[in-house]
Amino acid sequence: MLKQILETMYVDPELLSELSEDQKQALYYKMRQEQIRRWRFREEEDSSKKQALYYKMRQEQIRRWRFREEEDSSKKQANKPAKKKSTKSKKVEFLSDEKSQAWVWVMGEHSNDLKYEDMVEERNRMLFEQQRQEDERQAQELALQEIQELARKKEEELQRKHDEMQKKIREEEEKRRQQILQELTDKQDEDDSLYVNAKEARLAAERLALERRQLEKKLLAEEEQRLQELKDREKKELEDARNRMLVLEEQKVRRTQEIYMSLTELREKQLQEAERELEVEWEKSERRAKEYERERRQSVRRVREQASKGHDLTSLVPPPLPERPVSRHGSTPVRSPSRDSMVPVGGTLTRRSAQPARPPKPDSKAAVIQWFRDTEMQRGVLKNERGEVHKWFHGILSRVEAEDLLSDKQTGTFLVRVSEKIWGYTISVKVKDRCKHFLIDAGELHYQFFGDNQHVHFSLTDLLEHHRTHPISSAGHELLQIPMGQVQDPPDYQELIP
User: What secondary structure does DSSP assign to 198-252, as a single string?
Assistant: First the structure.
């Protein structure tokens, strides 16, 4: 099945819906490798042709150059009188090869020379690295400018608040001082009017001096307390400013990373769009090839019908070949013969001639039943060595029916059902909170999971026993531990038994 898909580069949507995510990724990776292999094959052919042409042109240039040099030297010798050769005369000599001809080096022929594709790839890589570094530098400069601007505005705001606070404190101190002086003056006038004699005046002056000293101490204490509060407030504001600077630094780093990631995502999106365009071109070319194949078969069928009726075949002309689609690289897709259409003859592979090929997938449920009876029952898939039907074996079930059977079972419970999408089976296994389904390709001599680089087993029982202790996928860790038996009578595989 995988070979047929790689040959036609087409996957049926119904078959694709039966595949798990790991199998889909493996299939897409394999198809992508096949496209790259075909493209490189065409590029190597074009490169070898260009090098051969360049080598011939270079040889022709050297031959013409030698011919002109010989003509010029012969003319000069004929026109000029013979001169005595000088021992200090200069001349140019070329290196000679084995045939006594000028030795010529063509870039790319030596094993140590870089190929043109490698040089282009290295240049593109350097340009991409330079562009990436330039983008990072611009992103860092932009983020640094934003952070510096925010810090400058914040520093101006803090300075303005500090100046307003100092001004307000000075105004309050001046107002308090004026109030105290006014109270002292009023009290002194009142005392002067009350005390007449000197003794009373002296006592009143002492009391006034004592009250003044107490008031001054009180004012000094309040001033010290106010200054301490101001210092604490400034210290707290400095700590807040330091914390805000740290936050701004984190924002700078995060902003730089976001700009870089956005640029990277943009480049990846452009590359994905280019790959999608290439895949669309491949699909168009495959559709044209299939249309041509269908027309060719119809033409052959008409010729056979005319020949069986004894009509003249000279008027039947096969349809013209469709125009070969050109890819983005200027070459046409190359099809390789399928190994399924080759048989071993005398130690070599020879194309089959008379045996009809099995269709890529079943066209009906009856075809699946007939295939199972003719092929799989002869291989002993249905029963074990004691002649009993395997407990895990089920008939032709849908995906929903299999999930209903496994819905209330514990992790590791599994069943094997005959697939209607491919020539093979489907393993349905219960995992933590859902069911997973894996396609099994039943080849002529082996069984394996659908995909590339899978283990090959010579029987279905060996495959199930292997994955009893070895997980099916490295990411999901699916183990086939508990087989799911029949829950109805007659069993669901009754229609498969003749």
Answer: HHHHHHHHHHHHHHHHHHHHHHHHHHHHHHHHHHHHHHHHHHHHHHHHHHHHHHH
